[in-house]
Amino acid sequence: QGMTLQKMRDEITFRLRAQKLIDSEVKQQTPPTDEAINEYYTKNKQRFDEPETVHARHILVKTDPSDNESVKKTKKAKIETIRKQLVSGGDFAKLAQEKSDCPSKAKGGDLGTFSKGRMIKEFEDAAFSQKVNEIGPVVDTKFGHHIIQVLEHNPAKSKSLEEVKDQITGTLQQQAHNKAIKDYIEGLKKQAKIEYGKN
């Protein structure tokens, strides 16, 4: 950043002194009341909503707009063969590692957990409508042919006050602490004679 070692030392020293001063002058805030916590929860309830999610894995056979009819048929036959193997009890993770064209193959095709709006529509529609653990039908997207397996399907839910009480307590204490620091600095400004140097 174009800073000399001495300048950096001076800046760190100043920041530590300022922090030490604030720590000594601004008292630790008392925990918020249950009433304040309840009010914050009521006003910000949507913040604690958890959307519907699925945990899914897939196998992809990539397609390309430039594929000729012969290549298209070969790729379609490949994905159908893979699906037959899966329906017959084939190991999904192993087949994904061997056959999938998606980087997720390194994790056995696992895409992790995702909510709506994260995946391409055709893929998302299939994932959110499939039953858990079933081997879904082949789904076509602009990326290619997919076989999807949903491992978990979690409905949307709102976290209860009890679940987020500690989080809200921390937030309110931090807000109160920040206000106390601001008030302290404003008080110093009112007592000080501030002169601005000329450019």
Quick structural summary:
The protein has 199 residues and is of the alpha+beta class. It has helices at 5-25, 34-43, 69-87, 92-99, 121-129, 161-191; strands at residues 49-50, 53-62, 110-115, 139-141, 144-154, 157-158.
Q: What can you see in these coordinates?
A:
- By secondary structure, this protein is an alpha+beta fold.
- It has helices at 5-25, 34-43, 69-87, 92-99, 121-129, 161-191; strands spanning 49-50, 53-62, 110-115, 139-141, 144-154, 157-158.
- The strands form 2 sheets. It has a 4-stranded antiparallel β-sheet with strand order 3-2-5-4, sandwiched between helices. Strands 1-6 form a two-stranded antiparallel ribbon.
- A hairpin with a 2-residue loop joins strand 4 (139-141) and strand 5.
- Helix 2 (34-43) crosses helix 6.
- The longest helix has 31 residues, at 161-191.
- It is elongated.
